[in-house]
Design a protein that fits this description.
Clc chloride channel, 2 domains, about 0% strand, single chain, mainly alpha, about 70% helix, ClC-type_chloride_channel, membrane, chloride transmembrane transporter activity, Chloride channel protein, transmembrane
């Protein structure tokens, strides 16, 4: 009996290592595919501005065709968590659909991140391993653990995963150990096949000024407002997209839209993961109008693309868009521009993710570590605001009005007031129309 438990333990350790290695291999594969398809367009002038049209449109139709046949894949992180929460497990038999469609959308230049498909694949492998361990525990020594075929009817009578452990502490200890082994596996792959990294500890001299305490008010409000806009763009896109148009045409049409948007800048395409840090240095050389256009268009492309079948994660596009709008606002206000920008970015990203701690970790690995006190304070403050004051149409309208007045008091350029005024008026008009329609 002890020997059998030892065999199961070795089996779990080996497969945890393999799962970590496969997860890292998938992320490297995504980068390799993007580099294979787009390196000529991104690194040289060969292919010119029309190259995205040659790639995005045909691959868009292929994505639409596969969506029509297989359904909406890859699943989102929220869908994975919902399945696990409601059913206690994830249906891992359709992992290959998320793999193929996720890789296609990313390789075609979609403004999405790899976190959705990566979550599906990793969760599928983990659930499969959990089922193998449950099955092994129920079958005892009646088969070969490494080669035995797992049947559905055998799983029906198998113990629950939590029942494999004597107590909660043992379960937490074992799972933590297996996760650690998986991380080691991923690290091995990243060391053997290194890719350009985006995360790290960055340093920068910050010119702290008292005026930043005053500018933190409008920047905080703008960050929350942009975060609200990004979140609701997904719902608006789903309402706008005509369901009567087949998914095949939706995929192809968005490929055309994405290719057209690339004429503004190539940063509209892709997740923006590897461009976030360089863009923070380049952004101050761009005009305010350009930065606002990039922020808005990228947010729209991520959410409209998702609604039209180009599915994936939105964390990195959200970070990139927040950096663009944060830099634009910072350039209009007095005080240190990096402090102003990080308030907008932290507020926006916290509102989008609704997880202050996750936002803090992400930003500390992307921006100068000297800004840590501002990041921590803003993230927890916005997290508290979200809980106390759930967003509504009228509240967002009021936010625009308040921000416009504060900007005026700070003597910001007049056209920002004009933009906020137009935005607030349009928002009020759409809100009134919605009330009339309902």
């Amino acid at each position: 009996m002890k020997f059998w438990r030892l065999k199961i333990g070795i089996y779990a350790v080996v497969w945890s290592l393999i799962i970590g290695m496969l997860t890292a291999a998938y992320l490297n594969l995504v980068n390799w595919v993007i580099d294979l398809v787009w390196h000529q367009y991104l690194d040289t002038t060969v292919g010119g501005k029309w190259y995205p049209f040659l790639v995005c449109i045909p691959l868009g139709f292929l994505i639409g065709f596969l969506n029509e046949r297989w359904g909406n894949y890859p699943l989102t992180i929220e869908q994975v968590l919902t399945q696990v929460r409601m059913k206690g497990q994830l249906n891992y038999h359709n992992w290959w659909k998320s793999f193929i469609l996720g890789l296609l959308a990313l390789g075609a230049g979609g403004s999405i991140g790899p976190e959705a498909s990566t979550t599906v694949l990793t969760s599928s492998m983990i659930n499969w391993l959990g089922d193998r361990l449950r099955w092994a525990a129920s079958m005892r020594q009646e088969f070969s653990l490494w080669h035995g075929k797992m049947q559905t009817q055998d799983l029906a009578g198998a113990p629950r995963f939590s029942q494999l452990f004597k107590n909660k502490y043992q379960r937490v200890l074992v799972i933590s150990g297996l996760v650690g082994i998986g991380i080691i596996g991923a690290t091995i792959v990243f060391k053997l096949f290194p890719e350009e990294g985006v995360f790290g500890i960055h340093h920068r001299i910050i010119d702290w000024e008292w005026i930043n305490l005053l500018t933190s008010i409008p920047t905080l409000i703008i960050g929350i407002a942009f975060g609200w806009l990004f979140v609701h763009l997904e719902n608006w896109a789903a309402l706008i997209i005509n369901a009567k148009i087949s998914k095949i045409w939706q995929g192809g049409i968005f490929g055309l839209i994405l290719a057209v948007s690339s004429l503004i800048t190539s940063d509209i395409m892709f997740s923006g993961e590897f461009r976030i840090v360089p863009f923070t240095h380049e952004a101050f050389n761009h005009s305010i109008t350009f930065l606002l256009v990039v922020a808005l268009v990228k947010a729209v492309m991520s959410n409209v693309g998702f609604a039209m079948g180009w599915r994936g994660g939105t964390i990195f596009p959200a970070i990139f868009s927040s950096v663009a709008v944060g830099t634009a606002c910072a350039m209009m206000l007095p005080g240190d521009v990096r402090v102003n920008a990080i308030v907008v970015i932290a507020a926006s990203l916290t509102f989008i993710l609704e997880k202050p701690l996750l936002t803090i970790i992400l930003l500390l690995l992307l921006v100068p570590i000297e800004l840590a006190p501002v990041i921590i304070l803003v993230c927890f403050l916005v997290g508290r605001i979200i809980k106390l004051f759930p967003a509504s149409e009228q509240k967002i309208f009021n936010i625009f009005c308040i921000t416009r007045k504060i900007m005026y008091l700070l003597s910001v350029k007049n056209y920002l007031n004009f933009v906020l005024l137009i935005s607030s008026c349009l928002y009020e008009k759409s809100h009134v129309s919605l009330l009339k329609n309902n």
